[in-house]
């Protein structure tokens, strides 16, 4: 099947899964912003999602998208390195027109994955997983607001999350326009437009996540009620 066996097919899979993950991040970012205004409303959302069958199915689907995206990223990176062979060792300087993010997508991807694992430990493990196995991890599984407070009262987590989000910004700003190019939006005019749209969209998205981290770290979050 060309989606698996060909380089173009793998790039299409990377692009489609990447766009799907950006859409999820958009939902997640909007959900997080709620916590800046009302702890009660945020916990209501957490309870509505919880470990309901539809939330579990969505989580499994999301996990599948993430795994496919990550696996294909490593496959394409290995393929590109193999195709270049020893030429990459002969380079003396970086091409001027190649973005830093494009040159370091593998490193950025690894930082993003490590940050994702940390985030899953701090929230998914304490919330949905705890509810699935019928236990609590210090707070009720639906008390996401309390878990946010606990996490970002720790300055180490604050720093790690900001590093993760900055790496995610670099990764997404490159990945956004690259995905649009791969799925067939071509032409110099729209190529440049998608770069601008992608940079603005991703910047606002990441700022939404950083705003939550900084607000809770600074003690500016609202009370639960």
UniProtKB/TrEMBL annotation:
Keywords: Membrane, Transmembrane, Transmembrane helix. The chain crosses the membrane at residues 12-39, 51-75, 105-125, 158-179, 200-221. NCBIfam families: sdhC_b558_fam. Gene3D superfamilies: Fumarate reductase/succinate dehydrogenase, transmembrane subunit (1.20.1300.10). SUPFAM superfamilies: Fumarate reductase respiratory complex transmembrane subunits. This is Succinate dehydrogenase/fumarate reductase cytochrome b subunit. The keyword Transmembrane applies. CDD domains: SQR_TypeB_2_TM (cd03498). It comes from the Bacteria.
């Amino acid at each position: 099947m060309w989606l698996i066996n060909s380089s173009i097919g793998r790039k299409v899979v990377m692009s489609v899964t990447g766009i799907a993950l950006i859409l999820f991040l958009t939902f997640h970012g909007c959900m997080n912003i709620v916590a800046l205004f009302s702890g009660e409303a945020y916990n209501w959302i957490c309870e509505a999602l919880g470990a309901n069958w539809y939330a579990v199915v969505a989580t499994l689907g999301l996990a599948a998208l993430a795994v496919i995206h990550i696996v294909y990223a490593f496959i394409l990176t290995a393929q590109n390195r193999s195709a270049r062979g020893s030429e990459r060792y002969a380079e003396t300087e970086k091409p001027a027109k190649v973005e830093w993010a494009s040159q370091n997508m593998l490193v950025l991807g690894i930082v993003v994955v490590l940050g994702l694992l940390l985030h899953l430990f701090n929230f998914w493990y304490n919330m949905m997983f705890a509810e699935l196995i019928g236990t609590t991890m210090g707070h009720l599984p639906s008390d996401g607001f309390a878990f946010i407070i606990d996490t970002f009262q720790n300055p180490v987590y604050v720093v790690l999350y900001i590093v993760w989000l900055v790496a995610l910004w670099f990764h997404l700003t490159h990945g956004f326009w690259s995905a649009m190019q791969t799925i067939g939006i071509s032409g110099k005019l729209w190529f440049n437009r998608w770069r601008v749209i992608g940079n603005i969209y991703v910047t606002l998205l990441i700022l939404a996540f950083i705003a939550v981290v900084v607000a809770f770290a600074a003690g500016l979050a609202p009370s639960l009620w």
